[in-house]
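Supplementary notes for students who missed Thursday's class. We covered one full example, reproduced here. Read the sequence, then the structure, then the short commentary at the end.
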Amino acid sequence: MDKYRVKPEEKIRLKDWDPDETDSFDGGKDEGRERLQELNRELESLQELLYAEHKHKVLIVLQGMDTSGKDGVIRHVFEGVNPQGVRVANFKVPTPEELDHDYLWRVHRQTPAKGEIVIFNRSHYEDVLVVRVHGLVAEEVWKRRFAHINDFERMLAEEGTLILKFFLHIDAEEQKKRLQARLDDPTKHWKFNVGDLKERARWADYMQAYEDVLNKTSTEFAPWYIVPSNKKWYRNLVIASVLVDALKGLKMQFPQPKEDLSQVVIE
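Structure (token representation):
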């Protein structure tokens, strides 16, 4: 799965990355789903170990266009994990209180504690994406933020946070199909937002903004992965594989008991 990792200083163009690709798994959809269940079980055990060891922190960032599957990733990749050690943070339009502070203030408050996995469903990157595309701040302001974000993530990493960032890559035609499916199904109408069509009209602007994000903020300590996401099963498989491998790389151990238990007898 390392092929999807954006190397530091690498200059990527999203048009060169195929959102339909499933090359890293040749077993097909059914076998892919079986493998995901295996990874779910591994993740469940690793998350318990992370919580028990109480040493590392894990931050997962999910970004992508509307319908790219951020909610689906949370639902399927993290199926079965203990809710006590996993938390989802959503970043919507800033509140008046949040606007009174710097743009990273509300983000830092949501970062993980020791033993915790936190999933950002959208993130601090909205402040170099939406605000840029909609012209909410001047160009010189959002351009400065790339350096701010790199410094912020470096600090988190140096303080013991494992950071993994996933861009869920779909194409405009796939988004159209997913939006139409929501419109055609009355039980999905609650998901449909007419405002999403206005964002869709800015597709090219968003792709340029995402390219800059991927090129300027993928680092050794906080890498971006471009995840082919037209096929939902493959999207989930890629993210679960990267996450399980990264957690294994922490070489975690269950803590030793505080007392000698060898002579304990339960009557």
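Commentary. The chain has a mean pLDDT of 94. The chain has one domain: 2-248. If anything here is unclear, bring it to office hours.
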